[in-house]
Amino acid sequence: MGSPLSTPEQLAPGAVLDRSPLGAVRAAAASERKVLLTTPVPQQTTAWTKARRDVRHLLRSSGYQLLEVPAGGSAADWLRLHRGLRERLARNGHILIEYPFDQRKRLYGLLVLSRLLGVRLYGLIHDLDSLRFPNSPVEREIAILRLFDGLVSHNGTMSQWLRDNGVRRRMADLNLFDYLTDEPPATWREDDIARPLKVACAGNLSWGKARYVYDSRLAALRGVQLDLYGAFYESDRVPDTGLRFRGAFDPDRPVLHDRYHFGLVWDGTAVDQCAGSYGQYMRYNNPHKLSLYVALGLPVVVWREAAIADFVERCGIGVTVRDLRELGSIPDRVDAAAYRRMARNLVPLTEAVRRGDFLHDALVRLLR
Question: What superfamily in CATH does domain 8-179+356-367 come from?
């Protein structure tokens, strides 16, 4: 297990970060006028809505002005949007758009407008549909992403995929989504490694995204207590695996019903690998559930071939496995001293992810 990275700036040597309440972006570009274009976010208990709400809160506190894009709006709505941008931006400003952007056809108009105003157009990637969904054309998504002057990507693996597919724009790696919550950390972690190994599994539990939790092979797990938390659980599909569904929680106030050794970062259709489109997407993305566990001070178990496996190992905050059936052997691999090191390594990352340091750091590197 590699040496821990105690703060986000160690992921990008030389970055100078401002930890003030207004954030590092204002310090990096104090004279800029900045606009975040937003789209309506439904009130759901999902990672998608939580991530976008956190981004908006952090950027508003960093000096961004928020403008909501009309969903399928009329020509008059878009004229008002254009007028609002003109009023808010100076020639040294920029527009930041969360991607995927619902109004994709309007991006071309926004690109033209940004050029007329003399401002830059940046994208913050939440997801790449061409990697997540097999039927989403890569060429179309790449053509859209090439419209931006720069991008915040999830990690180095995703950034390299974008470059390999023709996106030649400035990029900054996020490395980890921030997770804003007032719930106290470390409340949910066991003090020492032991059997049974207690593992929390949080996230979207629908059959389409997390079919592995309904897999009868989980019944073969011995010495493991696996508890499920999340929305869209389909209890009628559950075999007799011994798993416990502990309900869903408000993502802004995550509350678990037990203390755990690890949080599980897994997706897809199978227990022997992260299979299927959602599982394979983990080769490229930063799963938001990793941010949840870090915010709660909980070490993690992650698929060894996931893009974020390297981050977990370098930071020393968890273990990697090829197959969920390895869970029962983790107490043989991780002794009490190693587990306590993981808990210590999490402390600065927990503080950073709760402050919003990862987003601020990425934007400083993108904009400088």
Answer: Glycogen Phosphorylase B; (3.40.50.2000)
